[in-house]
Amino acid sequence: MKKHFIRACYVAALVSSFYACTTPAEEEGIAEFAKIHKAAMAEISPGCEMITFEPGTYKRGADGFVTELTSSAGSGPVLVSAFRKISTSSTYQTKSVANVFDSFQAKTVQDQEKAQQFHVQDLLTPNTNYGGFGIGVGGASTAYANDRNLGNLLIINRSDNFNVAYDYSPGGKMIIDFSNLGTVTLKAVTVIDIDSYEAGSEVRMYGTDGELLKAVPMEVSGDNGVQVLNLGDTKGVQTMEVYLGLVNEETGSAAIDNIEFCRELPEEPKTGCTRTQGYWKTHSQSGPAPYDATWSKIGPAAEKTPFFNSGMSYIQIMQKPVQGNGYYNLAHQYIAAKLNMYTAYASDEVMNAFNQATTLLSNHSSNVVAVKSNKKLNAEFVKLAGILDAYNNGNLGTAHCDDTSSAKAGK
């Protein structure tokens, strides 16, 4: 590949450009540059997929704006919408104006002049420092280097004419709806052009019940800067919402690209039965009954795994007599429930009690004796133990096993 195949000349002032021309050989080089750098940017983790907004991966509605997306692996449709913010309020227009923007469009002098006319130089890729046409100190920097062609980006369109693709500067929100795929694990999204006055822009991820799972703030990358925002491998996401600009400010000009996600396969339904804490205590490696391999699911140390910060292992906790101490009472039922849940279904009621128990046992594991002396706290432990005990005995919807059966859970 030629070392210098893009020739673009600009005067020092960012608002003007002078004319240059490209030879057929240089035009061929530009196309090669576009292909190679787009592929380089779209690095996908094994087993995951990416939404790139490239031709053939999106569909437009009757009004011309983008409504559906398809991933790099052909998964879809993923629904998309984008809404302009109404002035400095927290409300948004009802018309969706999701559009794609070609960030590598200024390949001729005329294109560059058009880019200046619509003030979209800050969304062009790569930056002039890296042989492209983007303008901005962020993209020219090392920290947020805009050093490759990103191809198409998703924007909130400024006008109601989808043929004129340029971003809406007062801000707004984009919604990516994965519900047709079930739920997904979100890994990352590329964001371009978050200026200092747009600090507070963020990505919010919601589950199937509308619960906010996680919110990730965008970094200030500066004009034309590019960042790959880590979404923390957030699981169970059905909807991703991208908020550009602060609620009380008329700012929020930016674009996104390369949404990386992993499909979540539905879990096999659990059809096992439950067993009591007495069963699990006697079916460990310590005996005396035959070993139940479900213990190994806790971790490599199985029943010898440390139980929170108690200084005891799971089996040592199980062997402690309760003697009125709510901590030991709850711990026994908690361990049994945990082992049962590897193969047996647990209702929302049981899971809520289990999660509350996890917090209590963890927070008080360093001073187990003190639980008994605090009547109110001890009662809270005992109450949760009662719910888990009912589950372990088959009284909360999941059948109890015949403990004398030769069938062993987890085998």
Write down the secondary-structure element order: HEEEEEHHEEEEEEEEHHHHHH
Largest sheet data: 7 strands, antiparallel
Main sheet strand line-up: 2-3-4-7-12-9-10
**Helix/strand/pairing category:** alpha+beta
**Poorly predicted ranges (pLDDT <50, ≥5 residues)?**
1-42, 403-411
Shape: elongated
Put simply, the count of helices is 9
Estimated radius of gyration? 29 Å
Write the layout of secondary structure elements.
Elements: H1 24-41, E1 49-51, E2 58-60, E3 66-69, E4 78-84, E5 98-102, H2 109-117, H3 137-140, E6 152-156, E7 172-177, E8 184-192, E9 202-206, E10 212-217, E11 226-237, E12 239-244, E13 255-263, H4 277-282, H5 314-318, H6 326-341, H7 348-363, H8 368-373, H9 375-392
Antiparallel strand pairs: 1-13, 2-3, 3-4, 4-7, 5-6, 7-12, 8-11, 8-13, 9-10, 9-12
Mind explaining what this structure looks like?
The chain is of the alpha+beta class and 411 residues long. It folds into 2 domains: 24-263, no CATH class; 277-392, no CATH class. The protein is 24% helix and 19% strand. The chain has helices at 24-41, 109-117, 137-140, 277-282, 314-318, 326-341, 348-363, 368-373, 375-392, and strands spanning 49-51, 58-60, 66-69, 78-84, 98-102, 152-156, 172-177, 184-192, 202-206, 212-217, 226-237, 239-244, 255-263. Strands 2-3-4-7-12-9-10 form a 7-stranded antiparallel beta sheet, with no helix packed on it. A hairpin with an 8-residue loop joins strand 3 (66-69) and strand 4. It is elongated.
